Structure formats: structure tokens, C-alpha cells
Amino acid sequence: MKIKNLLLLQSVILAGGTVFAWSKLLPQFSNFQSIYGTIFRFRDCIIPNPLATACFYGSMAFIFVTVFSFFIWHKPDHLHERYLRNLLLFCVIFASSVVSFEFADYYKLFGANAIPITCTPGVFPLLTPCFTGLMFFLTSYIISIFATRRLT
What we know:
The chain has about 150 residues and is mainly alpha-helical. The chain has one domain (about 5-150). Helix content is about 70%, strand content about 0%. The chain has 4 helices and no strands. The chain is elongated, with a radius of gyration of 17 Å.
């Protein structure tokens, strides 16, 4: 596979992750706004504030890495691809830690007073948007490993 095609595949996967993440996050903002009349309430909430969930930060990360990836696709550069690869590794670690937290929360390892940081409390962790986001990040990270090797 040519390097430009590999970089395009990486960018398209990240763009898909961005669309997926924001399609799950925007309805949460709408629901929270309709219940509380603001998006800036953080205490005594029945549903978690989207600004306080890992989904928000993962969605922001998707935007950043997608733009960066398209920049690299447009002008391939080994150093920038290495930076993207390292950033994607951080995203994989972040998403993995959130999914691990979801497992601990799902199996009530923290007790009843734990503050939920997930978008979907009570849902089996492999069925959450965070797990799907992890798969997008992981796939892109694996592609970036091959792309970095080809750009040397």
C-alpha cells in the first residue's frame, strides 16, 4: 500500500471516529440542557454533565488528531507522523483507562458513592461509545505504526 493511501486510510478512520463521537455527545448536551436549562451544572445531577465526562474529552481529541492526520496526509512528514503516533498512543491509553473505569463502575468496585465519568452509566462497557472510540483510536494507532515505518 502506498504511503499516501495509508495516511488517507488513517485520516478517514479518525474522521469516522470524530463523527461517531460527536453523534453520541451532542444528544447528551441536548438532553442535559432540556433537563437543567444549562450545561454548566455539575452537582446533584441525575444524568452526568457531558462537560464532565470522558466522552467530551475523547471527542475533542478526535477533532485534534483528525485535523492533524489530514495535515500529514496532505504533506507527508516522518516527524509529524511520529508525533501523531505518540498522540494516538496517548488517546489509546486514555480510552483504555476510561473503559477500565467503566468495568470497575459496572461491577460496583468503587461503591455506590463513585462519581460517574462515563456517558452511559450502567451499560456493559463493551457496548459503550467509549469502547467504540477506543477501537477507532487503536486502529488508527496501528496504522500510524506502519506509516511511520514507511516514512523513514
